[in-house]
Amino acid sequence: MKQNILKIWPLLLLLLLCRNETAAQKKIYTDSLLLRYATDTFSRTHSTAPLLIKFTNAPTEKSLREWGLIKALTSHHYILRQLPTDSISLKKIVYCYTANTNWKATTLLLQQLEKLSDSDSITMQVSYGDLLQPLAYANIVTTLPHYAAAVVRIKKQDWTAFINQPAIRIADVLRHPSPEIIINTINPFVNRINIAQQQFPAIRGKNITVSVKEDLFDTTDIDLKGRYVPSPGVSSINSSHATIMATLIGGAGNSGSNGLGVAPEVLFSSADYNVSLFPDDNAYYRQYAITVQNHSYGTGIENYYGAEAAAYDQHVLEADTILHVFSSGNIGTQTSTSGRYQGIGGYANLSGNFKQAKNIIVTGGTDGAAQVMALSSKGPAYDGRIKPEIVVYGQDGTSGAAALTSGVAALLQDAWRQRFNTPASSALIKAIIINSASLPRGVLPGYDHGFGSLHALGALQTMQESRYRSGVVSPATPAAFDITIPAGMQQVKVTLCWNDPAAAVNAPSALVNDLDMVVTTSDNKQYLPWVLSSYPAADSLKMIARRGVDSLNNIEQISIDHPIAGKLHISIRGTRLSTQAQSFYLAYEFTPLQTFQWQNPVAGSILNASQNTPLQWQTSYSGNGDLSYSLDSGSTWLPVAQNIAIAQSMYNWPVPDIFHKILLKLTLTDTSFVSAPCYISPMLTIHTGFNCNDTALLYWNAQPGAAAYQVYTLGNSTLIPYSQPRDTFLFVPKAQVASLYFAVSPVAAAGWTGARSYAVNYTLQGVGCYIQNLLADKTTDNKVLLSLSLGSTYHLKNVYWERISGKNWATLSTQPVGDAMHFNYLDNSPWEGIVYYRVRLETIDGINIYSDPVSVQILFNNHILLFPNPVSTQLTILDTQIRSRKMLITDMNGRIVLQRALEDMQEVVSLQQLANGIYNCSIYLEGTRIYSKQFVKQQ
């Protein structure tokens, strides 16, 4: 008897919890989730329908898997395939109902539907499975058959029947992306881009094509010139944000140092994100040889595995050599309002479901000290996976973080192609980027910073030193590798990545093929990957990573501090495989116990004078030290800073205003580290002296200590040396030089070249043939002040001030030029009306150069002036005020021959229809005549 009671106890408890129809109807009006997702009855007698269950506490991931998780609505509400069977779990159930099929729709779509009347229609995006027959109740707008998705329009009254169709996997709103904050500068130091470029000068992204998916960048920008690959389907909108993203990825640095991107020789393509948030057609990537696509945009928080997420996973699996790089988003302070992590502030706020994909890389943003910014969107992914994978410096957001990562990916692909002449797998590039990412000592992976900060130098070193492996596992065949750990290592780190098959849309967990990695050291100790708690509570998500079996991510990382020297055995097995075989890649690195490397400046670096520059190093040393610099090759040292923490790895130095070769030194208690020679240089400013028909004059400020100046002009895509004069000016013969862009650098007596100026287009500096501008301003006492600014005084002798008199120009005054660039003249006796002025410049060769005329309006005693008089075709009327007036013109018999309204201070009246003769012009303000004047009309 006791045993029978124990057997039926769960059923009795279930009957108490799962209400009858009356109770259900009473509850359904007081709970919005019941209203959306529950039927009005509960039945398990003959039904296999999913259940809507609310728990008092969030269940564990293991329990949810056992109960057949279909969808997490919140941390307490779940759509499950079956009820818990143990009494402890049953006691934690608040209610359970048979679920309707609304769980296949996103929360935002259901919210929109709830606002509509039954007769209203709505357009939405749907994904479907096997279609045995066409979708019913819907008008198809567009389809994406490759990804089993469509845009449809339905009536709200047909919603239940539509979503009940078994083929429907998910229904979602149509979303519109937006760029995630403009990044206006590049800092190549934080992520070691500058030293990567210096140490690997031959790797510049050549023959790699990067697609920028958003609006169209400026294809004529001089930093992108000559490298745009036109393609169909680009946006009709030109975007400064897209231009900045392209510049960060691969700007040539023609405009200046801020215009130098990560991979300055990549080719660029553009894809319009306004058309679709799905991957572009496979033919687009193949035709234009695209292997990196940058996505610096987002929507809102979308914590589900939607159609786009599945599509990107599918696309990468089909096209293994394409790496998609996404920004995590700039909504890191927002809180998710749906999904398992609902209501947990500061977590799970990635901006777009496409960022929930597995086979992409998502980048968060840091400040200049590599600290994660509050605005940077954070993980976990909807199912607990680690997102973002890495963090990158992004001055104002994560857009630039993604762009810099895309640039580093292009460098890695270039390095691979130079060695093997084939495209690299995106899983390999991803493994190398993630494994080389840096973390402060003692810090482990986390949901805010992923696996660490992008480290461009470390990534290229991993590639060039072949510290990677590839393999394949099958259900019956694991894979294994041995690598040798050298003596004296502080840490060894190994990262495993694979491109996983796409999960079903709306899947509760995205991972399909589960690979597990274990490493064994030579002393027979085994180490598992780092895993994070994905339990939906803030305290759990903040917990430090621990070692364990990872059943969520297609990225696994193992690091070991102070590893024993000798063989490291890496074993990888397929714990759960849906396919016959799964390929994978892994990357590894060693960190020595005692190491120091200057990373800014590097050999030959040019530090801009009078600017703050981050001095950076990478070291395993700790404690404090002193920074100093030398101007005499190390004979004497001048202080920079004292007693700074070595572990900070950076110090912002206000660089002195000098033009000199220097050395830097960091001094510890018992040792010191001297940098390679580098240089401090002011940046010159280049000006247009004149821009005449056949010649332009360029000039710049003199640099003390410079023996010459290197002038550059824009070639096909980069600035190239043009001339090296000793003077501070240069004549440009237009017939011989096609480019309009020029820049200049000072050249030291020792032969080294200093900082290059910003490049200027000499035709856009506001300077004509010597004359920059001529202004005419009326003074309060009706005199005229003329102001002249010149671009140059080279070979000029005199300035002549001229005023028109009738049809001729009369000279008012003459001034010698001398060294002045600005001239003034006061006309004490202008006449009434519109007065025209110009200047005539005389060169020492007797050549005259004229300015364009300028004009000024002069009125003496009258508020209104009429001229010319006599007049032939047009009469001009001037007024000192802007007001509405009426003009009447009458002949000598008093008959009105012309009338019109006057609104502006200057009005022109056509008189061509009037016969020759004498007329009277009267002007009225609010019915009162305020002006009257006779004039003569003649041919």
Q: Pick out the low-confidence regions.
A: 4-13, 19-30
CATH architecture of the largest domain: 3-Layer(aba) Sandwich
CATH top level of the largest domain is Alpha Beta
Kindly name the structural category. mainly beta
State the separation between the terminal residues, measured CA to CA.
127 Å
Relative strand content: 35-45%
Instruction: Note the quaternary state here.
Output: single chain
Total helical segments: 15
Main beta sheet: 6 strands, parallel
The CATH superfamily of the largest domain turns out to be Peptidase S8/S53 domain
Strand order of the largest sheet: 11-10-12-14-15-16
Rg to the nearest angstrom?
37 Å
Q: Given the C-alpha coordinates, what overall shape results?
A: flat
Please outline the helices and strands.
Elements: H1 2-17, H2 21-28, H3 32-37, E1 51-55, H4 61-66, E2 69-72, E3 77-80, H5 87-91, E4 93-98, H6 107-114, E5 121-128, E6 139-144, E7 149-155, H7 159-163, E8 168-172, E9 178-179, H8 193-199, E10 209-213, H9 240-250, E11 267-271, H10 282-287, E12 290-295, E13 297-298, H11 307-318, E14 323-327, E15 361-366, E16 390-393, H12 399-420, H13 426-436, H14 456-464, E17 468-473, E18 479-485, E19 489-497, E20 514-520, E21 526-527, E22 530-531, H15 538-541, E23 546-547, E24 555-561, E25 566-576, E26 582-592, E27 596-600, E28 606-608, E29 612-619, E30 624-630, E31 638-645, E32 650-654, E33 660-667, E34 672-674, E35 678-681, E36 686-691, E37 695-700, E38 706-714, E39 719-723, E40 729-733, E41 741-748, E42 760-761, E43 771-778, E44 784-790, E45 796-805, E46 808-816, E47 822-827, E48 833-843, E49 848-850, E50 854-858, E51 864-867, E52 874-879, E53 885-890, E54 896-902, E55 906-910, E56 917-925, E57 928-937
Parallel strand pairs: 10-11, 10-12, 12-14, 14-15, 15-16, 28-35
Antiparallel strand pairs: 1-3, 1-4, 2-3, 5-7, 5-8, 6-7, 9-13, 17-26, 18-25, 19-24, 19-26, 20-21, 20-25, 22-23, 27-29, 29-32, 30-31, 30-33, 33-34, 33-35, 36-37, 37-40, 38-39, 38-41, 41-42, 43-44, 44-47, 45-46, 45-48, 48-49, 48-50, 51-52, 52-55, 53-54, 53-56, 56-57
Helix pairs in contact: 8-14, 9-12, 12-14, 13-14
